[in-house]
UniProtKB/TrEMBL annotation:
Residues 376-441 form the Alpha-D-phosphohexomutase C-terminal domain. Belongs to the phosphohexose mutase family. Residues 4-138, 160-255, 259-369 form the Alpha-D-phosphohexomutase alpha/beta/alpha domain. One of its GO terms (molecular function) is phosphoglucosamine mutase activity. Binds 1 Mg(2+) ion per subunit. This is Phosphoglucosamine mutase. The gene is glmM. GO terms for cellular component: cytosol. The active site is at S105 (phosphoserine intermediate). GO terms for biological process: carbohydrate metabolic process; peptidoglycan biosynthetic process; UDP-N-acetylglucosamine biosynthetic process.
């Protein structure tokens, strides 16, 4: 079986190990052939926009990507350091044939990744990714002379994106004291500028990237520093972004974490009240807390659940015309303003809700009661048998009877590793843990490699 290059969010790996300059160049040539091919370039010269996060490896990978695109006859606008949603926005705004973002999101600094965006700033579907992989290293007619692409810096990238972000809200944020953790990443300039421009009294932390410190003990995967800063500054709220700022988690004024499910619930209720929630439905994944689902239904809001991954949330939104979706991890997609998850946009929307209602984040988050959730990873098992094993299925049915409708069980094979994830929600942490441990033992015995 051939291993695919593209994972759930582009091509990702150890920079200069798995992800080399040569691979980046070859991928970019193939992507140019697939995404910039209009069949007839008469009167139109294809062009791309390229952005990156702050990783030091992004510099040489950017050079390789640009070389590949230009050698294939594609003009390139260099956006510099910009969040993934900023690259998506400018792909759409500038009418580019494709966008490229160099980032490994929340991964450690040594990793990096290449994300391609189609026209309109949309993520690629599987068929396009497969087509790009098939075109790699194929013989092709190389343009020469004036046919090669030109490379031009686009100095207005951050300005354009920040203007777009501020325009997404109607109510000024004056009087709200906010802490923003930029994760030493792609939003270190755009994030603070957007929140200050919208009127917030801002303290920015981890906003001095040096190419080496991205996600290092900070950002959405390390919330401790944000909690400390919120309590120290007496702030009303804190937000933490990840390395490419396509997701956001929050902390209330008491230092309590507010996760993606709670943020999604706050925004869904707000849009619903204003008649702007398309089809009165929000899209979430099967990992969303049962408390979220219950709260939405009590508010008269439908919940459409998908497989885990923001690409599946986006797919459901695009197919059915929904306007809001997201994940527990903090990916929130507001299709009225963006084609992908946007952490800064999410923070602005939550702050506007606080400003217009006069309520604290703690009060707003109380719209849902989170059920205790326990996740156990069972490694070194045959995940392909997880859905079909009769003994595992019987054990799940038995434990569901124990929960008696007051909880939920989900067994989910990992997409990348020989792991089965056992997730249990129950009225208490102890009960959830006991059920999860018993099921994990069954999975371990039955599916052992």
């Amino acid at each position: 079986m051939t291993t695919r290059l593209f994972g759930t969010d582009g091509v990702r790996g150890l920079a200069n190990g798995d992800l080399t300059a040569e691979l980046a160049l070859d991928l970019s040539v193939a992507a140019a052939h697939v995404l910039a091919d209009r069949g007839d370039f008469a009167g139109h010269r294809p062009f791309a926009v390229v952005g990156r996060d702050t990783r030091i490896s992004g510099e040489f990978l950017e050079a390789a990507v640009v070389a590949g695109l230009a050698s294939a006859g594609v003009d390139v606008l260099l956006l510099g350091v910009l969040p993934t949603p900023g690259v998506a926005y400018l792909t759409q705004k500038l009418g580019a044939d494709l966008g490229v973002m160099l980032s490994a999101s929340h991964n450690p600094m040594p990793d990096n990744g290449i994300k391609f965006l189609a026209r309109g700033g949309r993520k690629l579907d599987d068929t396009i990714e497969i087509a790009i992989e098939k075109r790699m290293r194929e013989p092709w007619q190389r343009p020469q002379g004036g046919g090669v692409g030109r490379v031009t810096p686009y100095a207005e990238a951050v300005d354009d994106y920040v203007t777009h972000l501020i325009s997404s809200i109607e109510h000024p944020l004056v009087g709200l004291r906010v802490v923003l953790d930029c994760a030493e990443g792609a939003a270190s300039e755009a994030g603070p500028r957007a929140l200050v421009g919208a009127g917030a009294d801002l303290t920015a932390i981890h906003a001095i990237p040096d190419g080496l410190n991205i996600n290092d003990g900070c950002g959405s995967t390390h919330l401790g520093p944000l909690q400390e800063a919120v309590l120290r500054d007496g702030a009303a709220v804190g937000f933490a972004l990840d390395g490419d700022a396509d997701r956001c988690l929050a902390v209330d004024h008491e230092g309590t974490v507010v996760d993606g499910d709670q943020i999604l619930a706050i925004l869904a209720q707000s849009l619903h009240e204003h008649g702007r929630l398309a089809k009165d439905t929000v899209v979430a994944t099967v990992m969303s807390n049962l408390g979220f689902v219950n709260a939405m239904r009590e508010a008269g809001i439908g919940v459409r659940q998908t497989k885990v991954g923001d690409r599946y949330v986006l797919e459901a939104m695009n197919i059915s015309g929904y306007s809001l979706g997201g994940e527990q991890s903090g990916h929130v997609i507001m299709s009225d303003h963006a084609t992908t998850g946007d952490g800064i946009l999410t923070a602005l929307a939550v702050l506007e809700r606080m400003a217009t209602t006069g309520k604290s984040l703690k009060e707003l988050a109380s719209v849902m009661t989170r059920l205790p959730q326990v996740l156990v990873n069972v490694p070194d098992v045959d995940k392909t048998r997880a859905d079909d094993d009769a003994v595992v299925a019987a054990a799940v049915a038995e434990e569901e009877a124990v929960l008696a409708g007051e909880g939920r069980i989900l067994l989910r094979p990992s997409g990348t590793e020989p792991i089965v994830r056992v997730m249990v929600e129950a009225p208490t942490e102890q009960k959830a843990g006991e059920v999860a441990d018993r099921l994990a033992d069954v999975v371990r015995r039955q599916l052992a490699l």
